[in-house]
Write a structure and sequence with these properties.
The protein contains ten helices and 15 strands. It is α/β, with parallel strands linked by helices. The protein folds into two domains: 11-161 and 263-300, D-Maltodextrin-Binding Protein, domain 2 (3-Layer(aba) Sandwich), CATH 3.40.190.10; 166-255, D-Maltodextrin-Binding Protein, domain 2 (3-Layer(aba) Sandwich), CATH 3.40.190.10. It has a five-stranded mixed beta sheet, sandwiched between helices. It has a three-stranded parallel beta sheet with strand order 7-3-8. Strand 5 and strand 6 form a beta hairpin. The longest helix is centred in the last third of the chain and has 16 residues, at 274-289. The two termini are 28 Å apart.
Length: 306
């Protein structure tokens, strides 16, 4: 079962039809890993940053523009039973009081409010959540389940509510003068075997690549000035930047390549439950139009990755 998660305490999940396979090549990336928790230090940092004013940042195009013609479902949906996990901050996790909080938790509640339906949110262990959905113990799973062919055979997915771009990270003094079209003679850190390494080789071959086993090692190489830049998953890099803003920051534009970097975050539901999927899609469009998605993004991601 493939998930879109972080590099922290990951367990690789290999599948011959990964969402990150491109042109027949297997490109191991976030859709093939499962997280086992970030730890109390990161949770505390996130809660502290949430209390600060959000930094000026670009807002994402969360919802699929082509879905704007969706009308409210005619099939009654009395309630939506959301399933999630409690190990994926800032998306879904427990605070110091044990309360389930996070971007996904807030989003699920806003979806129910917008669709005018009753709502429950239940946390499951990460290795049981998808099976709970398959066993009809919930109507929708909002926990980073990747849209792979394997998962697509078991579940239907809503439209994407958060795309996951690739981003460059440089030291702070280099941000303004960074130019992705002028990387000749520059060294860029990437995670070995990642889709982002494949992207660099394919589209920006003039850069010299230095590979690392993990993205954290690549970001640390930027910090200690042993490479000129890092290129990798923007969302995960933003978590690292939360603790290293004095050192480094995003440089250049975000790169959206769904075929390489994955489709993004979506909500899974049992195959064939079109009424609930339709209601969620309609609510996502309304939440984008009325600014709620942007509000949640700014609240939970003080260092934006767009």
């Amino acid at each position: 079962m493939a998930w879109i998660r972080s590099e922290a305490e990951i367990v690789p999940v290999t599948h011959p039809h990964s969402a990150f396979a491109c042109n027949g090549e297997e490109l191991p990336e976030t859709a093939g890993i499962i997280v086992r928790g970030w730890g109390s230090a990161l949770v505390a940092l996130l809660l502290f940053l949430m209390a600060l004013p959000a930094l000026a940042q670009a807002l994402p195009h969360h919802a699929d523009p082509s879905a704007r013609e969706i009308s409210p479902t005619l099939t009654p949906v009395p309630a939506i039973r959301f399933l999630t996990t409690a190990d994926f901050p800032p998306f879904n996790f427990r605070d110091a009081n044990g309360e389930l909080i996070g971007f996904n938790v807030d989003l699920a509640r806003r979806i129910c409010t917008e669709a005018n339906v009753a709502c429950t949110i239940q946390a499951w262990p990460w290795d049981q959540a998808a099976n709970a959905l398959a066993d009809s113990q919930g109507d929708a799973l909002i926990a980073g389940l990747a849209m792979t062919p394997e998962n697509g055979a078991m579940f239907d997915f809503t439209s994407v509510y958060m795309a996951l771009p690739g981003r460059f990270v440089t030291r702070a003094p280099d941000i303004e003068r960074f130019d992705a079209k002028a990387l000749a003679g520059k060294t860029v850190a990437v995670r070995s075997g990642s889709a982002h390494e494949a992207f660099m080789k394919r589209y920006l071959p003039e850069a010299a690549l230095k590979t690392f086993e993990t993205e954290l090692q690549g970001l640390a190489a930027v910090q200690d000035n042993s490479v000129d830049a890092f290129f990798g998953d923007g969302m995960r890099a933003s978590f690292w930047l939360n603790e290293n803003l004095a050192c480094c920051g995003f440089a250049g534009e975000p790169y959206f390549r769904p075929a390489l970097f994955g489709e993004g975050l979506s909500i899974a539901g049992p195959a064939g439950n079109d009424a609930i999927r339709h209601a969620i899609d309609w609510a996502l469009i309304k939440l984008k139009d009325n600014g709620t998605l942007d509000e949640l993004y700014l609240r939970w991601f003080p260092v934006g990755f767009y």
